[in-house]
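Take a protein:
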Amino acid sequence: PCIETYQKVDLRTITLDVPPQEVLTRDSVTVSVDAVVYYRVSNATISVANVENAHHSTRLLAQTTLRNILGTKNLHEILSERESISSSMQVTSCGKHCQT
């Protein structure tokens, strides 16, 4: 067997910043929110075989999840329920594969 290419995958926890997102809340208020995402690759083979660029895909998933979840909340709910929003984002973006 010959190896034509290889890709090194970092299995440590990786941090990335989500750039500020303009979100329209349920009560029609536009807010600018940003986030920090922590993720870790648990299976390097699947990460390389199933996704072209896992880092970029994770960033896009975080942005989309942030906009989708905050778009269903009122401004008051966003300001007062930060912890529950964080928990729901973790469950939404990870599905059943998350390990805490």
Q: What stands out?
A: The beta strands are 14-24, 30-39.
